[in-house]
Amino acid sequence: MARLFTQLALLSSFIALSFAARAELSIQITQGVDNPIPISVVPFTNEGGGFLSEDIAQIVTNDLEQVGEFKALSPANMLSLPSQEREVFYRDWGILAQDYLLVGKIDRELGSQLIHVQYEFFDINREMKLAGEVLTGSVTQLRDIGHEISNVVFEAVTGTQGAFTTQILYIVADYINPELTNFRLEKADYDGQRAQILLESQEPIMSPSWSPTGQDVAYVSFETDLPRIYIQNIATGQRRQVTNYPNINSSPVWSPDGSKLAMVLSKDGSPDLYVQDLNTNQLQRVTDHPSIDTEPSWTPDGRSLVFMSDRTGQPQIYQIELGASSFNVERLTYDCYNCAKAKFLPDGVNLVHVRRETRQSPQYQIAILNIETQRVITLTDTSLDESPSLAPNGSMIMYATKFNGKGVLDAVSIDGRVKFRLPSTQGDVREPSWSPFLN
Asked: How far apart are CA 323 and CA 38, in angstroms?
């Protein structure tokens, strides 16, 4: 089945921002599985000739190896370089102890920017083709096509939908001098490539959050010297201010259906949770407590909010159903000195969060709590981990931490076996937000 990859046009002012100084990110694998799956990704044949700016086979290889579960054979060690099924001899790849094989070719229409990429994916042990199709797009979309092929391969082998075509948001703080810091809201592919600046300011930018469609982002900006919540369309750069309440306006997060924003406001006293309907602008107060209630996230069904509160003296995680009495709050964590930044996995049972085990411990680590069994799995071993964000397929968690004194983004699989890092070439990077699946 042929697919046409399309790209949204950006306004000229937004494009200009995209080419300003960016924090270049590049994945470094820090931990993989003990026995990765052997796979051969044969260099794709360029039948149309001419220079291509991206190497699709290398993109796929990088994708699969970066998640830590695959190990690709070097082309230098391959016995042949097939580009289509009739050139594949299973015995040759069996001799090389390969489990899977990907081959393909690229055809560029004469005098056109249009390309056709044919790929075929094989199970060597069962001697059968698992997938194959022709993807059509512009030469500028080679990376998108490569990521799409990676999705197919990943799902065929693991049974889990691939997230290689997803993107991330993050904040970069670039310290110019003691009196001046530049803040940037940036968007990039999941692997840190093709970074674009969505907003740049000398005032802080915080709490980026994707809409469920992936078309808009919400964030907090101090550009008026006060924290206010904004929504920005990614394609056009058009933005609108959502809140202008006194004092704190923070922590916006979209409801699963995209119709509402949960947020933290202190307009009536102490910080509490509110939900604003984005169609009617109607504001609903969810909590009413003299302590600090903050860091909301939605349950997968969109009926409740999970949040952090210090109402018992130390930061712990709670849950409240929308429309319930503000006193009808369920406490979810008990066994940590400080638990915060919580978000449910899609199963609605396992809760990703940041925890500090004891008062004496200086470490803040990413962990998963099963709220039914109370079992806790600690996933990270660094000391200042924060702002976990879940991949839309539920397989990886990206978070902010410190490395060599700089803010960087790390990622860990939900079983803790695979880890990778996205170090920045410029500025401290913080507050990652992983996109939903993008069409």
From this structure: 52
Based on the number of CB atoms within 10 Å of its own CB, is 4 exposed (0-12), middle (13-18) or buried (19 or more)? exposed
CATH topology of domain 42-158: Rossmann fold (3.40.50)
- The full set of domain ranges for the chain reads 42-158, 167-434
Which tens digit of pLDDT belongs to each residue from 355-378? 998 888 888 999 999 999 999 999
**8 A C-beta contact, residue 66 and residue 27:** yes
Smallest Cα–Cα separation from 159: which of 251, 69, 227?
A: 69
The pLDDT assigned to 218 comes to 98
Q: How far apart are the first and last CA of the chain?
A: 16
DSSP 91: H
Question: How far apart are alpha carbons 390 and 134 in whole angstroms?
Answer: 31
DSSP H or E segment with residue 65: helix 56-66
- What is the pTM (predicted TM-score) of this model? 0.88
Sheet with 293-298: list strands edge to edge: 293-298, 304-309, 316-321, 330-331
User: What is the mean pLDDT of the segment spanning 83-109?
Assistant: 95
Q: Are 252 and 229 in contact (CB under 8 A)?
A: yes
Q: Which residues, including other chains, have CB under 8 Å from residue 360's CB and lie 6 or more apart?
A: none
* Of 180, 187, 230, residue with least CA distance to 205: 230
> How many C-beta atoms surround the C-beta of residue 406 within 10 A?
12
Nearest Cα residue to 25 out of 335, 426, 433 = 426
Element housing 66 (H / E): helix 56-66
> Nearest Cα to 139, choosing from 166, 119, 112?
112
Tens of pLDDT, residue by residue over 120-157, are 999 999 999 999 999 999 999 999 999 999 999 999 99
Biggest CA-to-CA distance, the chain:
72
Query: CA-CA distance, 397 to 181, in Å (whole number)?
Result: 28
Superfamily grouping for domain 167-434: TolB, C-terminal domain (2.120.10.30)
